[in-house]
Amino acid sequence: MLTDREILSTIAMLKNEHLDVRTVTLGINLMDCVSDDLGRFLNNIRNRILGRAGDLVRVCDAVGEKYGIPVVNKRIAISPVAVAGARFSPEELVTVARALDAAASEVNVDFIGGFSALVEKGAARGDSALMEAIPQALAETQRVCASVNVASSKAGINMDAILKMGAVIKRAAALSADRDGLACAKLCVFANIPQDIPFMAGAYLGIGEADAVINVGVSGPGAVKKAIDRAMASEADLNLGRISEIIKKTAYKVTRVGELIGREVAKNLNIRFGIVDLSLAPTPNVGDSVGEIFQSLGLRSIGVPGTTAALALLNDAVKKGGAFASSHVGGLSGAFIPVSEDLNISEAVRNGYLTLEKLEAITSVCSVGLDMVALPGDTSEETLAAIIADEMAIGVINRKTTAARLIPVPGKKAGDNASFGGLLGQATIMAVTDARDNAFVRMGGMIPAPIQSLTN
Amino acid sequence: MGSKAIISVIGPDRPGILAAVSKLLLELDCNIENARQTILQGEFAGIFIASIPEGLKPAEINNRMQAAVRPMDLTVHVKSLSLTPFAAGCACEPFVITTQGPDRKGLVAGITGILACYGVNVTNLQAVFRGGNDPEGNVMIYEVDIPADIDSQALYADLREGAKALDLSISIQHRNIFEALNRI
Questions:
Q1: What's residue B83's pLDDT?
Q2: Parallel/antiparallel/unpaired status of strands A187-191 and A212-218
Q3: For chain A, what percent of residues have pLDDT higher than 90?
Q4: What is the ipTM of this complex?
Q5: CATH 3.40.50.2000 for domain A1-450
Protein backbone atom coordinates (compact mmCIF):
# COMPACT_ATOMS: atom_id res chain seq x y z
CA MET A 1 0.00 0.00 0.00
CA LEU A 2 1.30 3.41 -0.92
CA THR A 3 1.11 6.24 1.56
CA ASP A 4 -0.85 9.38 0.77
CA ARG A 5 2.37 11.35 1.26
CA GLU A 6 4.18 9.32 -1.41
CA ILE A 7 1.35 9.83 -3.85
CA LEU A 8 0.71 13.51 -3.19
CA SER A 9 4.39 14.52 -3.25
CA THR A 10 4.81 12.71 -6.57
CA ILE A 11 1.79 14.44 -8.07
CA ALA A 12 3.04 17.81 -6.79
CA MET A 13 6.40 17.25 -8.54
CA LEU A 14 4.61 16.56 -11.80
CA LYS A 15 1.92 19.20 -11.62
CA ASN A 16 3.58 22.13 -9.94
CA GLU A 17 7.31 21.59 -10.31
CA HIS A 18 7.65 20.84 -14.03
CA LEU A 19 9.11 17.38 -13.51
CA ASP A 20 9.15 15.64 -16.85
CA VAL A 21 11.25 13.44 -19.07
CA ARG A 22 12.90 16.03 -21.23
CA THR A 23 13.90 13.65 -23.97
CA VAL A 24 13.92 10.05 -25.04
CA THR A 25 16.66 9.78 -27.62
CA LEU A 26 16.97 6.77 -29.88
CA GLY A 27 20.53 6.11 -30.98
CA ILE A 28 20.75 4.54 -34.43
CA ASN A 29 23.95 3.13 -35.91
CA LEU A 30 24.37 4.07 -39.56
CA MET A 31 27.78 2.52 -40.15
CA ASP A 32 26.47 -0.36 -42.25
CA CYS A 33 24.50 2.09 -44.41
CA VAL A 34 27.78 3.21 -45.95
CA SER A 35 28.01 3.30 -49.73
CA ASP A 36 30.16 5.12 -52.25
CA ASP A 37 26.98 5.98 -54.12
CA LEU A 38 25.17 8.98 -52.63
CA GLY A 39 21.73 7.84 -53.75
CA ARG A 40 22.20 4.42 -52.21
CA PHE A 41 23.57 5.94 -48.99
CA LEU A 42 20.57 8.25 -48.70
CA ASN A 43 18.20 5.38 -49.34
CA ASN A 44 19.96 3.20 -46.77
CA ILE A 45 19.87 5.80 -44.00
CA ARG A 46 16.22 6.67 -44.69
CA ASN A 47 15.20 3.02 -44.48
CA ARG A 48 17.25 2.53 -41.33
CA ILE A 49 15.76 5.58 -39.58
CA LEU A 50 12.18 4.78 -40.58
CA GLY A 51 12.66 1.14 -39.62
CA ARG A 52 14.09 1.85 -36.21
CA ALA A 53 12.25 5.02 -35.24
CA GLY A 54 8.84 4.53 -36.87
CA ASP A 55 7.21 3.67 -33.56
CA LEU A 56 9.31 5.88 -31.28
CA VAL A 57 6.87 8.76 -30.84
CA ARG A 58 3.81 6.53 -30.41
CA VAL A 59 5.55 4.37 -27.79
CA CYS A 60 6.93 7.38 -25.89
CA ASP A 61 3.48 8.97 -25.77
CA ALA A 62 1.86 5.73 -24.60
CA VAL A 63 4.45 5.15 -21.86
CA GLY A 64 4.25 8.82 -20.84
CA GLU A 65 0.48 8.52 -20.49
CA LYS A 66 0.74 5.27 -18.52
CA TYR A 67 2.87 6.92 -15.84
CA GLY A 68 1.43 10.41 -16.09
CA ILE A 69 4.89 11.78 -16.97
CA PRO A 70 5.15 13.72 -20.21
CA VAL A 71 7.99 12.80 -22.56
CA VAL A 72 8.52 16.30 -23.89
CA ASN A 73 10.89 15.55 -26.77
CA LYS A 74 11.55 12.49 -28.87
CA ARG A 75 14.84 12.57 -30.69
CA ILE A 76 17.25 10.53 -32.76
CA ALA A 77 21.03 10.38 -32.46
CA ILE A 78 22.95 8.78 -35.32
CA SER A 79 26.52 7.67 -35.98
CA PRO A 80 28.77 10.62 -36.79
CA VAL A 81 28.01 11.59 -40.37
CA ALA A 82 31.65 12.60 -40.89
CA VAL A 83 32.52 8.91 -40.50
CA ALA A 84 29.51 7.22 -42.12
CA GLY A 85 29.58 9.71 -44.99
CA ALA A 86 33.35 10.21 -45.15
CA ARG A 87 33.29 9.51 -48.86
CA PHE A 88 31.24 12.58 -49.76
CA SER A 89 31.94 16.21 -50.60
CA PRO A 90 30.58 19.13 -48.55
CA GLU A 91 27.82 19.66 -51.11
CA GLU A 92 26.85 15.99 -50.96
CA LEU A 93 26.85 16.11 -47.14
CA VAL A 94 24.37 19.00 -47.28
CA THR A 95 22.15 16.65 -49.29
CA VAL A 96 22.61 14.06 -46.55
CA ALA A 97 21.50 16.65 -43.97
CA ARG A 98 18.36 17.35 -46.00
CA ALA A 99 17.61 13.62 -46.14
CA LEU A 100 18.10 13.33 -42.38
CA ASP A 101 15.75 16.27 -41.87
CA ALA A 102 13.12 14.64 -44.07
CA ALA A 103 13.41 11.29 -42.29
CA ALA A 104 13.20 13.00 -38.89
CA SER A 105 10.08 14.83 -40.07
CA GLU A 106 8.57 11.59 -41.35
CA VAL A 107 8.91 9.84 -37.98
CA ASN A 108 7.87 13.07 -36.24
CA VAL A 109 10.86 13.45 -33.91
CA ASP A 110 11.86 16.90 -32.69
CA PHE A 111 15.56 16.72 -33.57
CA ILE A 112 18.09 14.41 -35.15
CA GLY A 113 21.66 14.78 -33.91
CA GLY A 114 24.86 13.32 -35.29
CA PHE A 115 25.81 15.63 -38.12
CA SER A 116 29.05 15.38 -36.26
CA ALA A 117 32.81 15.01 -36.46
CA LEU A 118 35.45 13.97 -33.95
CA VAL A 119 38.61 15.90 -34.71
CA GLU A 120 40.38 16.27 -31.38
CA LYS A 121 43.60 14.87 -32.80
CA GLY A 122 43.18 15.81 -36.42
CA ALA A 123 40.59 16.16 -39.16
CA ALA A 124 40.26 13.41 -41.77
CA ARG A 125 38.88 14.13 -45.22
CA GLY A 126 35.30 13.38 -44.17
CA ASP A 127 35.65 15.53 -41.05
CA SER A 128 36.82 18.52 -43.06
CA ALA A 129 34.00 18.06 -45.56
CA LEU A 130 31.45 17.87 -42.77
CA MET A 131 32.71 21.02 -41.06
CA GLU A 132 32.54 22.76 -44.42
CA ALA A 133 28.96 21.55 -44.89
CA ILE A 134 27.67 22.52 -41.43
CA PRO A 135 26.61 26.14 -42.11
CA GLN A 136 24.45 25.37 -45.13
CA ALA A 137 23.20 22.09 -43.64
CA LEU A 138 21.96 23.78 -40.48
CA ALA A 139 20.59 26.85 -42.24
CA GLU A 140 18.54 24.76 -44.67
CA THR A 141 17.15 22.18 -42.25
CA GLN A 142 14.85 22.37 -39.26
CA ARG A 143 15.69 19.35 -37.13
CA VAL A 144 19.31 18.48 -37.85
CA CYS A 145 21.84 19.17 -35.09
CA ALA A 146 25.60 19.21 -35.46
CA SER A 147 28.51 18.80 -33.10
CA VAL A 148 32.28 18.79 -33.45
CA ASN A 149 34.60 17.48 -30.77
CA VAL A 150 37.79 19.52 -31.02
CA ALA A 151 39.59 18.54 -27.83
CA SER A 152 40.03 15.85 -25.22
CA SER A 153 42.03 15.32 -22.07
CA LYS A 154 43.81 12.39 -23.77
CA ALA A 155 44.55 14.08 -27.10
CA GLY A 156 44.85 17.78 -26.30
CA ILE A 157 43.29 20.73 -28.11
CA ASN A 158 43.14 20.89 -31.90
CA MET A 159 43.58 24.62 -32.47
CA ASP A 160 43.32 24.26 -36.26
CA ALA A 161 39.85 22.76 -35.84
CA ILE A 162 38.88 25.47 -33.37
CA LEU A 163 39.88 28.21 -35.80
CA LYS A 164 37.89 26.43 -38.47
CA MET A 165 34.85 26.25 -36.17
CA GLY A 166 35.09 30.00 -35.57
CA ALA A 167 34.58 30.45 -39.29
CA VAL A 168 31.86 27.78 -39.45
CA ILE A 169 29.85 29.48 -36.71
CA LYS A 170 30.23 32.86 -38.36
CA ARG A 171 29.04 31.47 -41.69
CA ALA A 172 26.11 29.57 -40.09
CA ALA A 173 24.99 32.81 -38.44
CA ALA A 174 25.19 34.69 -41.73
CA LEU A 175 23.11 32.07 -43.53
CA SER A 176 20.37 32.32 -40.90
CA ALA A 177 20.65 36.07 -40.32
CA ASP A 178 16.90 36.54 -40.75
CA ARG A 179 16.36 34.28 -37.71
CA ASP A 180 18.98 35.87 -35.42
CA GLY A 181 21.57 33.25 -36.41
CA LEU A 182 19.36 30.32 -35.43
CA ALA A 183 21.55 27.81 -37.27
CA CYS A 184 24.24 28.30 -34.61
CA ALA A 185 21.79 27.16 -31.90
CA LYS A 186 21.92 23.71 -33.48
CA LEU A 187 25.72 23.48 -33.33
CA CYS A 188 27.92 22.55 -30.37
CA VAL A 189 31.71 22.53 -30.19
CA PHE A 190 32.92 20.05 -27.58
CA ALA A 191 35.82 18.94 -25.46
CA ASN A 192 35.52 15.37 -24.12
CA ILE A 193 32.17 14.73 -25.80
CA PRO A 194 30.37 11.71 -24.29
CA GLN A 195 29.14 9.05 -26.73
CA ASP A 196 25.66 8.84 -25.25
CA ILE A 197 24.31 12.37 -24.78
CA PRO A 198 20.53 12.41 -25.25
CA PHE A 199 20.35 16.22 -25.22
CA MET A 200 20.76 18.44 -28.27
CA ALA A 201 22.70 19.78 -29.98
CA GLY A 202 25.38 17.34 -28.81
CA ALA A 203 23.60 14.01 -29.26
CA TYR A 204 25.24 11.47 -31.55
CA LEU A 205 25.66 7.71 -31.35
CA GLY A 206 29.23 6.91 -30.38
CA ILE A 207 31.37 4.55 -32.40
CA GLY A 208 31.55 2.23 -29.37
CA GLU A 209 27.78 1.88 -29.11
CA ALA A 210 25.45 -0.91 -30.29
CA ASP A 211 23.12 -0.92 -33.32
CA ALA A 212 20.42 0.91 -31.45
CA VAL A 213 20.04 2.22 -27.92
CA ILE A 214 17.54 4.25 -25.91
CA ASN A 215 19.06 7.06 -23.84
CA VAL A 216 16.93 9.27 -21.64
CA GLY A 217 17.42 12.86 -20.54
CA VAL A 218 15.52 13.89 -17.45
CA SER A 219 15.17 17.38 -16.09
CA GLY A 220 13.75 18.91 -12.95
CA PRO A 221 15.25 22.26 -11.93
CA GLY A 222 11.78 23.27 -10.71
CA ALA A 223 11.62 20.23 -8.42
CA VAL A 224 15.05 21.06 -6.96
CA LYS A 225 14.11 24.69 -6.39
CA LYS A 226 10.81 23.80 -4.69
CA ALA A 227 12.56 21.26 -2.44
CA ILE A 228 15.07 23.93 -1.36
CA ASP A 229 12.28 26.48 -0.84
CA ARG A 230 10.31 24.04 1.33
CA ALA A 231 13.38 23.32 3.46
CA MET A 232 14.15 27.02 3.77
CA ALA A 233 10.62 27.62 5.04
CA SER A 234 10.48 24.71 7.46
CA GLU A 235 14.00 24.03 8.80
CA ALA A 236 15.40 26.54 11.26
CA ASP A 237 19.01 25.29 11.26
CA LEU A 238 19.38 24.70 7.53
CA ASN A 239 22.95 24.84 6.23
CA LEU A 240 24.63 24.08 2.91
CA GLY A 241 25.46 20.52 3.88
CA ARG A 242 21.77 19.89 4.45
CA ILE A 243 20.90 21.70 1.19
CA SER A 244 23.24 19.33 -0.65
CA GLU A 245 21.40 16.38 0.90
CA ILE A 246 18.03 17.78 -0.24
CA ILE A 247 19.25 18.32 -3.80
CA LYS A 248 20.71 14.81 -3.82
CA LYS A 249 17.42 13.24 -2.80
CA THR A 250 15.51 15.22 -5.41
CA ALA A 251 17.98 14.23 -8.13
CA TYR A 252 17.50 10.62 -7.03
CA LYS A 253 13.76 10.87 -7.63
CA VAL A 254 14.15 12.62 -10.96
CA THR A 255 16.60 9.99 -12.17
CA ARG A 256 14.37 7.12 -11.11
CA VAL A 257 11.59 8.56 -13.25
CA GLY A 258 13.91 8.69 -16.24
CA GLU A 259 15.11 5.13 -15.86
CA LEU A 260 11.59 3.77 -15.40
CA ILE A 261 10.34 5.49 -18.55
CA GLY A 262 13.48 4.72 -20.56
CA ARG A 263 13.46 1.04 -19.74
CA GLU A 264 9.81 0.68 -20.65
CA VAL A 265 10.22 2.52 -23.95
CA ALA A 266 13.27 0.37 -24.73
CA LYS A 267 11.39 -2.82 -23.86
CA ASN A 268 8.42 -1.89 -26.04
CA LEU A 269 10.70 -1.07 -28.96
CA ASN A 270 12.83 -4.16 -28.34
CA ILE A 271 15.93 -1.98 -28.14
CA ARG A 272 18.61 -1.97 -25.48
CA PHE A 273 18.33 0.64 -22.72
CA GLY A 274 21.46 2.77 -22.47
CA ILE A 275 21.70 5.50 -19.87
CA VAL A 276 19.89 8.20 -17.97
CA ASP A 277 21.36 11.67 -18.34
CA LEU A 278 20.31 13.30 -15.08
CA SER A 279 20.77 16.88 -16.09
CA LEU A 280 18.92 19.88 -14.76
CA ALA A 281 17.84 21.23 -18.14
CA PRO A 282 15.84 24.43 -17.91
CA THR A 283 13.22 25.83 -20.27
CA PRO A 284 12.22 29.45 -20.78
CA ASN A 285 9.25 28.93 -18.41
CA VAL A 286 8.93 30.41 -14.94
CA GLY A 287 9.49 27.67 -12.36
CA ASP A 288 11.60 25.55 -14.73
CA SER A 289 14.86 27.42 -14.29
CA VAL A 290 18.34 26.58 -13.01
CA GLY A 291 18.94 30.31 -12.47
CA GLU A 292 16.09 30.50 -9.95
CA ILE A 293 17.87 27.90 -7.79
CA PHE A 294 20.67 30.40 -7.11
CA GLN A 295 18.11 32.85 -5.77
CA SER A 296 16.61 30.14 -3.56
CA LEU A 297 20.15 29.62 -2.23
CA GLY A 298 20.32 33.25 -1.18
CA LEU A 299 22.13 34.90 -4.09
CA ARG A 300 20.66 38.01 -5.68
CA SER A 301 21.13 36.46 -9.11
CA ILE A 302 23.24 33.95 -10.96
CA GLY A 303 26.48 35.76 -11.80
CA VAL A 304 27.13 37.55 -8.50
CA PRO A 305 30.05 36.48 -6.25
CA GLY A 306 29.22 33.10 -4.71
CA THR A 307 27.77 31.74 -7.94
CA THR A 308 30.65 29.38 -8.69
CA ALA A 309 30.53 27.86 -5.22
CA ALA A 310 26.74 27.49 -5.38
CA LEU A 311 26.90 25.84 -8.80
CA ALA A 312 29.66 23.50 -7.62
CA LEU A 313 27.41 22.39 -4.76
CA LEU A 314 24.41 21.99 -7.06
CA ASN A 315 26.24 20.10 -9.81
CA ASP A 316 27.93 17.70 -7.40
CA ALA A 317 24.75 16.96 -5.44
CA VAL A 318 22.84 16.27 -8.67
CA LYS A 319 25.53 13.80 -9.79
CA LYS A 320 25.59 12.04 -6.42
CA GLY A 321 21.80 11.66 -6.28
CA GLY A 322 21.64 10.40 -9.83
CA ALA A 323 24.52 7.98 -9.45
CA PHE A 324 22.79 6.37 -6.48
CA ALA A 325 19.46 6.18 -8.30
CA SER A 326 20.72 4.36 -11.37
CA SER A 327 23.69 2.20 -12.27
CA HIS A 328 23.47 3.42 -15.86
CA VAL A 329 24.08 7.13 -15.73
CA GLY A 330 25.82 8.89 -18.58
CA GLY A 331 25.65 11.80 -20.99
CA LEU A 332 26.32 15.18 -19.46
CA SER A 333 24.64 14.63 -16.06
CA GLY A 334 24.70 17.81 -14.03
CA ALA A 335 23.37 21.34 -14.19
CA PHE A 336 22.99 23.12 -17.53
CA ILE A 337 23.29 26.89 -17.68
CA PRO A 338 22.04 27.72 -21.19
CA VAL A 339 21.59 31.47 -21.30
CA SER A 340 18.69 31.88 -23.71
CA GLU A 341 16.90 28.69 -22.67
CA ASP A 342 16.64 29.76 -19.03
CA LEU A 343 14.44 32.79 -18.41
CA ASN A 344 16.19 33.63 -15.15
CA ILE A 345 19.73 33.38 -16.58
CA SER A 346 18.67 35.45 -19.56
CA GLU A 347 17.34 38.09 -17.14
CA ALA A 348 20.62 37.99 -15.21
CA VAL A 349 22.46 38.96 -18.40
CA ARG A 350 19.97 41.72 -19.17
CA ASN A 351 20.31 43.13 -15.66
CA GLY A 352 24.10 43.08 -15.77
CA TYR A 353 24.67 40.41 -13.11
CA LEU A 354 26.11 37.84 -15.49
CA THR A 355 28.93 38.65 -17.86
CA LEU A 356 30.67 36.43 -20.40
CA GLU A 357 33.75 36.22 -18.17
CA LYS A 358 31.77 35.11 -15.11
CA LEU A 359 29.79 32.68 -17.23
CA GLU A 360 33.05 31.14 -18.44
CA ALA A 361 34.26 30.87 -14.85
CA ILE A 362 31.20 28.97 -13.68
CA THR A 363 31.40 26.56 -16.62
CA SER A 364 34.40 25.06 -14.82
CA VAL A 365 31.92 23.53 -12.36
CA CYS A 366 28.79 23.05 -14.50
CA SER A 367 28.08 20.03 -16.65
CA VAL A 368 28.31 21.60 -20.11
CA GLY A 369 29.77 25.00 -20.85
CA LEU A 370 29.07 28.23 -22.70
CA ASP A 371 25.60 27.27 -23.85
CA MET A 372 23.22 29.32 -25.99
CA VAL A 373 25.27 32.46 -25.61
CA ALA A 374 24.25 35.30 -27.92
CA LEU A 375 27.18 37.50 -28.97
CA PRO A 376 27.45 40.67 -31.05
CA GLY A 377 27.13 40.05 -34.78
CA ASP A 378 30.49 41.65 -35.49
CA THR A 379 32.39 39.20 -33.27
CA SER A 380 35.21 37.96 -35.50
CA GLU A 381 36.00 34.36 -36.42
CA GLU A 382 39.22 34.63 -34.42
CA THR A 383 37.44 35.91 -31.33
CA LEU A 384 34.85 33.14 -31.55
CA ALA A 385 37.71 30.66 -31.89
CA ALA A 386 39.48 32.17 -28.90
CA ILE A 387 36.35 31.94 -26.74
CA ILE A 388 35.97 28.30 -27.80
CA ALA A 389 39.65 27.61 -27.06
CA ASP A 390 39.28 29.01 -23.54
CA GLU A 391 36.23 26.85 -22.92
CA MET A 392 37.91 23.74 -24.31
CA ALA A 393 40.94 24.35 -22.08
CA ILE A 394 38.68 24.30 -19.01
CA GLY A 395 37.35 20.92 -20.06
CA VAL A 396 40.65 19.38 -21.08
CA ILE A 397 42.56 20.41 -17.97
CA ASN A 398 39.73 19.49 -15.59
CA ARG A 399 38.97 16.20 -17.40
CA LYS A 400 35.34 17.11 -17.90
CA THR A 401 33.04 17.79 -20.79
CA THR A 402 32.78 21.38 -21.88
CA ALA A 403 31.03 22.79 -24.89
CA ALA A 404 30.45 26.07 -26.65
CA ARG A 405 27.18 26.92 -28.38
CA LEU A 406 27.81 30.49 -29.49
CA ILE A 407 25.51 32.61 -31.61
CA PRO A 408 27.00 35.78 -33.12
CA VAL A 409 23.69 37.46 -33.94
CA PRO A 410 23.97 39.19 -37.32
CA GLY A 411 23.34 42.91 -37.27
CA LYS A 412 22.94 43.13 -33.51
CA LYS A 413 25.18 44.45 -30.77
CA ALA A 414 25.74 43.91 -27.05
CA GLY A 415 22.59 44.67 -25.04
CA ASP A 416 20.22 43.94 -27.95
CA ASN A 417 17.73 41.11 -27.68
CA ALA A 418 17.97 37.96 -29.79
CA SER A 419 15.05 35.57 -30.13
CA PHE A 420 15.36 31.94 -31.23
CA GLY A 421 11.83 30.71 -30.55
CA GLY A 422 10.34 27.85 -28.56
CA LEU A 423 12.55 26.04 -26.07
CA LEU A 424 15.61 27.87 -27.44
CA GLY A 425 14.21 31.05 -25.88
CA GLN A 426 15.66 34.51 -26.12
CA ALA A 427 18.70 36.29 -24.74
CA THR A 428 20.30 39.63 -24.28
CA ILE A 429 23.47 39.76 -26.33
CA MET A 430 26.57 39.63 -24.12
CA ALA A 431 29.46 42.02 -24.52
CA VAL A 432 32.76 40.55 -25.75
CA THR A 433 36.09 42.07 -24.82
CA ASP A 434 37.67 43.60 -27.94
CA ALA A 435 40.03 40.89 -29.20
CA ARG A 436 41.20 42.19 -32.54
CA ASP A 437 44.55 40.96 -33.85
CA ASN A 438 44.28 37.69 -31.97
CA ALA A 439 47.41 36.08 -33.36
CA PHE A 440 47.35 33.34 -30.74
CA VAL A 441 44.48 31.37 -32.29
CA ARG A 442 45.94 31.75 -35.79
CA MET A 443 49.15 29.99 -34.75
CA GLY A 444 47.35 26.66 -35.10
CA GLY A 445 48.66 23.22 -34.23
CA MET A 446 47.85 21.16 -31.17
CA ILE A 447 47.93 22.21 -27.54
CA PRO A 448 49.30 18.98 -26.06
CA ALA A 449 47.32 16.77 -23.72
CA PRO A 450 47.79 17.77 -20.09
CA ILE A 451 50.00 16.01 -17.58
CA GLN A 452 48.06 13.49 -15.46
CA SER A 453 50.07 14.01 -12.29
CA LEU A 454 51.13 17.08 -10.28
CA THR A 455 47.44 17.95 -10.01
CA ASN A 456 47.56 21.31 -8.32
CA MET B 1 -5.86 -26.54 3.80
CA GLY B 2 -7.74 -25.99 7.08
CA SER B 3 -10.73 -23.72 7.61
CA LYS B 4 -10.39 -20.00 8.00
CA ALA B 5 -12.60 -17.38 9.53
CA ILE B 6 -12.81 -13.67 8.83
CA ILE B 7 -13.56 -11.44 11.78
CA SER B 8 -14.51 -7.80 11.42
CA VAL B 9 -14.69 -5.47 14.40
CA ILE B 10 -15.98 -1.92 14.37
CA GLY B 11 -16.71 0.65 17.05
CA PRO B 12 -15.35 3.61 19.03
CA ASP B 13 -11.57 3.48 19.28
CA ARG B 14 -9.99 2.90 22.73
CA PRO B 15 -7.00 1.05 24.15
CA GLY B 16 -7.44 -2.73 24.45
CA ILE B 17 -9.51 -3.63 21.38
CA LEU B 18 -6.73 -5.60 19.67
CA ALA B 19 -5.73 -7.17 22.98
CA ALA B 20 -9.28 -8.42 23.59
CA VAL B 21 -9.76 -9.78 20.07
CA SER B 22 -6.37 -11.48 19.83
CA LYS B 23 -6.60 -12.94 23.36
CA LEU B 24 -9.90 -14.60 22.54
CA LEU B 25 -8.57 -15.97 19.24
CA LEU B 26 -5.61 -17.43 21.12
CA GLU B 27 -7.93 -19.05 23.68
CA LEU B 28 -9.86 -20.62 20.78
CA ASP B 29 -6.57 -21.95 19.31
CA CYS B 30 -6.93 -19.74 16.19
CA ASN B 31 -3.90 -18.39 14.32
CA ILE B 32 -4.08 -14.83 12.95
CA GLU B 33 -2.78 -14.85 9.36
CA ASN B 34 -3.65 -11.34 8.24
CA ALA B 35 -4.82 -8.29 10.09
CA ARG B 36 -5.44 -4.67 9.18
CA GLN B 37 -6.87 -1.86 11.23
CA THR B 38 -7.65 1.77 10.64
CA ILE B 39 -9.15 4.64 12.58
CA LEU B 40 -11.36 7.20 10.88
CA GLN B 41 -12.54 10.18 12.96
CA GLY B 42 -12.16 8.18 16.20
CA GLU B 43 -13.91 5.08 14.89
CA PHE B 44 -11.95 1.82 14.92
CA ALA B 45 -12.33 -0.75 12.14
CA GLY B 46 -10.36 -3.98 12.12
CA ILE B 47 -10.40 -7.05 9.94
CA PHE B 48 -8.68 -10.32 10.81
CA ILE B 49 -8.24 -13.57 8.93
CA ALA B 50 -7.44 -16.53 11.15
CA SER B 51 -7.03 -20.24 10.59
CA ILE B 52 -9.29 -22.13 12.96
CA PRO B 53 -9.00 -25.62 14.46
CA GLU B 54 -11.03 -28.47 13.05
CA GLY B 55 -14.51 -28.59 14.54
CA LEU B 56 -14.65 -24.96 15.59
CA LYS B 57 -17.57 -23.18 13.92
CA PRO B 58 -17.53 -19.48 13.03
CA ALA B 59 -20.83 -19.14 14.89
CA GLU B 60 -19.12 -20.20 18.10
CA ILE B 61 -16.31 -17.69 17.55
CA ASN B 62 -18.96 -15.07 16.90
CA ASN B 63 -20.78 -15.80 20.15
CA ARG B 64 -17.61 -15.73 22.25
CA MET B 65 -16.38 -12.59 20.49
CA GLN B 66 -19.68 -10.75 20.99
CA ALA B 67 -19.49 -11.42 24.69
CA ALA B 68 -15.84 -10.38 24.92
CA VAL B 69 -16.18 -6.99 23.20
CA ARG B 70 -19.67 -6.00 24.33
CA PRO B 71 -18.31 -3.85 27.21
CA MET B 72 -16.37 -1.84 24.64
CA ASP B 73 -19.47 -1.04 22.54
CA LEU B 74 -18.02 -2.84 19.51
CA THR B 75 -19.84 -4.62 16.71
CA VAL B 76 -18.39 -7.94 15.55
CA HIS B 77 -19.10 -10.08 12.55
CA VAL B 78 -17.52 -13.51 11.99
CA LYS B 79 -17.95 -15.79 9.01
CA SER B 80 -16.13 -18.50 7.10
CA LEU B 81 -13.62 -17.23 4.59
CA SER B 82 -14.71 -17.94 1.04
CA LEU B 83 -11.64 -18.46 -1.09
CA THR B 84 -10.92 -17.39 -4.69
CA PRO B 85 -10.73 -13.63 -4.31
CA PHE B 86 -11.83 -11.51 -7.25
CA ALA B 87 -8.34 -10.72 -8.47
CA ALA B 88 -7.08 -14.31 -8.52
CA GLY B 89 -6.28 -15.28 -12.09
CA CYS B 90 -7.18 -11.83 -13.47
CA ALA B 91 -4.50 -10.26 -15.67
CA CYS B 92 -4.47 -6.73 -14.30
CA GLU B 93 -2.15 -3.74 -14.08
CA PRO B 94 -2.03 -1.74 -10.82
CA PHE B 95 -2.81 1.94 -11.24
CA VAL B 96 -3.34 4.84 -8.87
CA ILE B 97 -6.14 7.29 -9.57
CA THR B 98 -6.02 10.53 -7.63
CA THR B 99 -8.72 13.17 -7.67
CA GLN B 100 -8.65 16.57 -6.02
CA GLY B 101 -11.28 19.27 -5.92
CA PRO B 102 -13.93 21.12 -3.93
CA ASP B 103 -15.92 18.95 -1.54
CA ARG B 104 -19.45 17.94 -2.51
CA LYS B 105 -21.64 14.90 -2.31
CA GLY B 106 -21.17 12.17 -4.89
CA LEU B 107 -17.43 12.44 -5.60
CA VAL B 108 -16.55 8.88 -4.63
CA ALA B 109 -19.80 7.53 -6.07
CA GLY B 110 -19.13 9.25 -9.39
CA ILE B 111 -15.64 7.85 -9.84
CA THR B 112 -16.26 4.37 -8.47
CA GLY B 113 -19.39 4.07 -10.61
CA ILE B 114 -17.23 4.47 -13.72
CA LEU B 115 -14.64 2.02 -12.38
CA ALA B 116 -17.32 -0.55 -11.69
CA CYS B 117 -18.67 -0.27 -15.25
CA TYR B 118 -15.27 -1.34 -16.58
CA GLY B 119 -14.73 -4.12 -14.03
CA VAL B 120 -11.91 -2.19 -12.36
CA ASN B 121 -11.36 -3.35 -8.79
CA VAL B 122 -10.44 -0.81 -6.11
CA THR B 123 -7.79 -2.42 -3.89
CA ASN B 124 -7.30 0.53 -1.58
CA LEU B 125 -9.11 3.81 -1.09
CA GLN B 126 -7.92 6.76 0.93
CA ALA B 127 -10.17 9.78 0.98
CA VAL B 128 -9.44 12.89 2.97
CA PHE B 129 -12.09 15.59 3.04
CA ARG B 130 -11.04 18.57 5.01
CA GLY B 131 -14.06 20.37 3.64
CA GLY B 132 -14.37 23.64 1.81
CA ASN B 133 -13.34 24.67 -1.65
CA ASP B 134 -9.57 24.25 -1.31
CA PRO B 135 -8.86 21.52 -3.89
CA GLU B 136 -5.68 20.52 -2.04
CA GLY B 137 -7.76 19.75 1.06
CA ASN B 138 -10.01 17.19 -0.59
CA VAL B 139 -8.08 14.27 -1.95
CA MET B 140 -9.26 10.84 -3.01
CA ILE B 141 -6.69 8.20 -3.81
CA TYR B 142 -7.90 4.98 -5.43
CA GLU B 143 -5.46 2.12 -5.87
CA VAL B 144 -7.03 -0.02 -8.55
CA ASP B 145 -6.41 -3.10 -10.68
CA ILE B 146 -7.26 -2.40 -14.30
CA PRO B 147 -7.96 -5.55 -16.33
CA ALA B 148 -5.55 -5.90 -19.22
CA ASP B 149 -8.27 -6.81 -21.70
CA ILE B 150 -10.46 -3.71 -21.43
CA ASP B 151 -10.32 -0.59 -23.61
CA SER B 152 -8.15 1.48 -21.28
CA GLN B 153 -8.37 4.58 -23.47
CA ALA B 154 -12.17 4.53 -23.16
CA LEU B 155 -11.84 4.10 -19.38
CA TYR B 156 -9.42 7.03 -19.13
CA ALA B 157 -11.71 9.19 -21.27
CA ASP B 158 -14.76 8.36 -19.16
CA LEU B 159 -12.84 9.00 -15.94
CA ARG B 160 -11.59 12.37 -17.18
CA GLU B 161 -15.06 13.34 -18.34
CA GLY B 162 -16.59 12.17 -15.06
CA ALA B 163 -14.00 14.06 -13.04
CA LYS B 164 -14.58 17.22 -15.05
CA ALA B 165 -18.33 17.01 -14.41
CA LEU B 166 -17.56 16.76 -10.69
CA ASP B 167 -15.12 19.70 -10.85
CA LEU B 168 -12.22 17.38 -9.95
CA SER B 169 -8.69 17.27 -11.27
CA ILE B 170 -7.66 13.68 -11.93
CA SER B 171 -4.38 11.80 -12.34
CA ILE B 172 -4.25 8.25 -13.64
CA GLN B 173 -0.81 6.68 -13.23
CA HIS B 174 0.71 3.24 -13.12
CA ARG B 175 1.62 2.34 -9.55
CA ASN B 176 5.28 1.73 -10.42
CA ILE B 177 5.96 5.45 -10.79
CA PHE B 178 5.25 6.02 -7.09
CA GLU B 179 7.43 3.13 -6.02
CA ALA B 180 10.25 4.21 -8.34
CA LEU B 181 10.25 7.73 -6.95
CA ASN B 182 9.81 7.04 -3.29
CA ARG B 183 11.33 3.69 -2.46
CA ILE B 184 14.85 2.35 -2.68
A1: 66
A2: unpaired
A3: 86
A4: 0.80
A5: no
